[in-house]
Amino acid sequence: MGRIATLLSTTARRLALDAFTIGLMVMVLLASVLPASGDAAVVLGHVTTLAIGLLFFLHGAKLSREALVAGLTHWRLHLLVLAATFVMFPLMGLAIEPLALSLLTPELTMGILFLCVLPSTVQSSIAFTALARGNVAAAVCSATASNFLGIFLTPLLVGTLVVQGAQASGGSGLDQIWKIVEQLLLPFIAGQLLRPWIGAFIDRHKPVLRYVDQGSILLVVYMAFSESVNEGLWQHISGTALLVLTVLSCVMLAVALGLSAWASRRLGFSKEDEITIIFCGSKKSLASGVPMAKVLFAPSALGMIILPLMLFHQIQLMVCAVLAQKWARRGEAVEAVPVDAG
């Protein structure tokens, strides 16, 4: 376990990781050393469910309807982003699956397929689009539409592509959709409905409420890895497997970025719209993915299934940060927008 702590510390220093990413690594380490079990796990499980509901309630309360309406006119852009998210990525997952199965465990391969059927990020897509001087209103609309449709499309795609994972969680595809609607969509709608009364408060305290978002994800990650550690997680993952996951994540991200840029140029989009398409179409949401995984998969496999998502999330943030800074230098400098856990 000392080697794991040393590796996490060294990696954080070399990559200058942000506080949230370091927090994710700490949760993995804590779950590896002190996994929740027994009555404590039951109590934390209920707390985690409430935290996820609060997370999506705040997502709903934070979204401005005016910004969404302003972005709705770019329907061609939104269709391209949705095609990248829910068509291109799943096809990539299917193409990679035979190779992944030959190099990784079935659970990690399941995690790669699950990653490919997730919606786009919200906060980080908008933040990078703003930093790169892209079409922010369209980014808000595309990212929101992706997450909303993902509530229905992700469990259906899981049932189609990730057959073993769907069976492990129990229940039919409709049961899984209802669980996600109940735990994620209803709190989101409640937040939207209450925005006229609490929106001003939410907007004033966004920096503080961001910690609620991140804290919810950290708690879910700790619980997921606790259950998996109790089932022998680290006996089934080697350094070679982590290296393979890293390479596959880099390849998938490079393909997504390249195809998104190529398609947007071929279809005649402006540079601002191209930036929005690239950032919204190439990323996958940790904030939505971890709660969805908790609903869709068996607890014993959850840690290994979300591991590819956690790794891809960090790689996408680092690569997109470089791209955003590059595109921001096209014209006058703009103030950097903080990137969230999305």
UniProtKB/TrEMBL annotation:
UniProt name for this protein: Bile acid:sodium symporter family protein
Keywords: Membrane, Transmembrane, Transmembrane helix
Domain of life of the native organism: Bacteria
Residue ranges of the TM segments: 15-34, 40-58, 79-96, 108-132, 144-164, 184-201, 237-262, 292-312
KW Cytoplasm (keyword) present: no
Keyword Transmembrane helix appears in the UniProt entry: yes
Residue ranges the record marks as coiled coil: none
